[in-house]
Amino acid sequence: MATGRATEAVPAADLRLVSAAEIGCSDDRRFVLELEFVQGLASPSYLQWLSQNRYFEDENFLRYLEYLQYWRQPKYSKFLIYPQCLYFLDLLQDKEFRTNVARGPFKEMIHAQQFFFWQHYRGNRLKADIPVKAVHAICQVPN
């Protein structure tokens, strides 16, 4: 992310205020690029690549990850196809996680857990909803 001024002078919270001319692309293009990047964080293999290529040692990159927290806001998060990227974005705020994700076994464990989540989440959610619906029916609570 190159700007017309030093990124050290721009706190992460203020990066959205940098003009399109300073960024070098339109606001629409920036939105798409940041959307694609933040969703890429849902891939444990990509996180491992970032770690192995020392991106997590770059303070500017870490500030950029902090800046991307704005994707949690509903007006932005509604565009996410892979909402797990927000979970990984949180994990990336932790130095120990950033270090460990470079290791193959750690990355594989994360990937397996992510797969199990995808495999079982809907079924577990449906099972959990059944008792709640039964209680609502008994108590005549509207849905």
Automatic annotation (TrEMBL):
Cellular localization per UniProt: Nucleus
Transcription in keyword set: yes
Cellular component terms per the entry's GO annotation: mediator complex
Record has Transport as a keyword: no
Keyword annotations from UniProtKB, A to Z: Activator, Nucleus, Transcription, Transcription regulation
Gene Ontology BP, a term: regulation of DNA-templated transcription
Top-level taxon of origin: Eukaryota
Transmembrane region(s): none
Chief place of localization: nucleus
GO molecular function: transcription coregulator activity
Pfam families: Med31
Family according to the record: Belongs to the Mediator complex subunit 31 family.
Description of how the protein assembles with itself and partners: Component of the Mediator complex.
Job of this protein: Component of the Mediator complex, a coactivator involved in the regulated transcription of nearly all RNA polymerase II-dependent genes. Mediator functions as a bridge to convey information from gene-specific regulatory proteins to the basal RNA polymerase II transcription machinery. Mediator is recruited to promoters by direct interactions with regulatory proteins and serves as a scaffold for the assembly of a functional preinitiation complex with RNA polymerase II and the general transcription factors.
Name of the featured protein: Mediator of RNA polymerase II transcription subunit 31
